[in-house]
UniProtKB/TrEMBL annotation:
Gene Ontology terms for molecular function: ATP binding; metal ion binding; ribosomal S6-glutamic acid ligase activity
Matching Gene3D superfamilies: ATP-grasp fold, A domain, ATP-grasp fold, B domain
Domain ATP-grasp: from-to ranges: 46-306
GO CC, alphabetical: cytoplasm
KW Nucleotide-binding (keyword) present: yes
PANTHER family: BETA-CITRYLGLUTAMATE SYNTHASE B-RELATED, RIBOSOMAL PROTEIN S6 MODIFICATION PROTEIN
GO BP: any one term: SOS response
Record keywords, A-Z: ATP-binding, Ligase, Manganese, Nucleotide-binding
Source organism of the structure: Pseudomonas taeanensis MS-3
Protein name, as recorded: Alpha-L-glutamate ligase
UniProt lineage: Bacteria, Pseudomonadati, Pseudomonadota, Gammaproteobacteria, Pseudomonadales
Length: 328
């Protein structure tokens, strides 16, 4: 019992945020319930982002009912690659990534050959709510398949790496690069076996990684080092994440973004209940950083001023970047 208490105190001293604190002090406090549909439904998120001039993967079409499944041929057209997602899915479940065509069939990103009927069956499963939050009926989204920037070629296995930034009241507080592995089936989801790699907020240089809750320095499939990689256009990612506060109105979110080879930074989705493994990847707790942002907000409120996205990014980069290690 004494050992558990010491462990708990050590985690608390490091500022590690647990799920109860996240829910009580941040999710419930800063995320108004009526705004959840904006982030829980990928189609609504995408439409709001487009209206705000924020770049997202192009939406080819939406299927809302079994009858509309007949529109799939029309939506796909002559495209050789595309992605099908449940609008209200979570954790990457239910996503089907088509990378190419093979005669009258389709080839998934993992190389599996499937028929048009199998794709229709997958869409039908999505509509029934098999992958949705709460098991409610859902819609299927067909969209552009992201082609990852070449910088990820040596440190990722198939799939599309993504970048998650935790944002508190518009202030980016922690970042992580998620890298697909063979075990994750080419998906960038940690609970399915992807790698989480911490990212220095100030520079966009990757730190050490975590895989299946163990610290690692090399990708298990490519064997290349995952640390020390400079992510391109890092300031653009930070500013994009900061601006999502105005986009959705939620005060505590995870912003998931990708770097497309042709289109640059794109927002994939927003998450109102972002996971906490990002702390392992960064070897740093969220609590101290969140408290620093809250202190900043209180200071600005007393002065009657607000900071724009550019100023919010500058503040957190100066305070939390590894080039400025005071918080550690």
């Amino acid at each position: 019992m004494l050992g558990l208490w010491k462990t708990w105190k050590a985690l608390e001293a490091k500022g590690i945020m647990g799920i109860n604190r996240r829910n009580a002090d941040y999710v419930l406090k800063y995320n108004k319930r009526h705004l959840y549909p904006i982030v829980d439904d990928k189609i609504i998120t995408k439409e709001r982002a487009i209206e705000a001039g924020i770049h997202v993967p192009e939406m080819y079409g939406v299927i809302s009912t079994e009858k509309e499944i007949d529109k799939l041929h029309e939506i796909i057209g002559g495209r050789t690659d595309f992605v099908i997602k449940p609008a209200q899915g979570a954790g990457g479940d239910g996503i089907l990534v088509i990378a190419d065509r093979f005669e009258e069939r389709y080839k998934t990103v993992s190389g599996k050959i499937i028929s048009h009927e199998e794709i229709e069956h997958q869409i039908s499963s999505i509509l029934t709510g098999l992958y949705s939050l709460g098991g409610h009926r859902d819609r299927a989204l067909i969209e552009y398949r992201v082609t990852p920037d070449q910088i990820f070629k040596s440190i990722s296995y198939e799939g599309v790496p993504d970048i998650r930034i935790i944002v508190l009241k518009g202030y980016p507080v922690m970042a992580m690069l998620r890298l697909p592995t063979r075990q994750s089936g080419g998906k960038a989801n940690l609970h399915q076996g992807a790698i989480g790699v911490g990212v220095d907020l100030a520079t966009g240089v990757t730190l050490s990684g975590t895989w299946l809750n163990n610290k690692i320095k090399k990708h298990p499939d490519t064997t290349n080092a995952v640390d020390g990689v400079q992510l391109p256009n890092w300031h653009g990612f930070m500013k994009l994440a900061a601006g999502c506060y105005e986009l959705c109105g939620l005060g505590y979110i995870g912003v998931d973004m990708v770097l497309d080879q042709e289109k640059g930074p794109l927002i994939l989705e927003l998450n109102a209940r972002p996971g906490l493994n990002i702390q392992i990847a960064n070897d740093c707790g969220l609590t101290h950083r969140a408290h620093a942002v809250e202190a900043r907000l209180a200071e600005l409120e007393a002065k009657g001023v607000q900071e724009d996205a550019e100023e919010r990014v500058r503040f957190t980069q100066e305070l939390f970047g590894h080039a400025h290690p005071a918080e550690r």
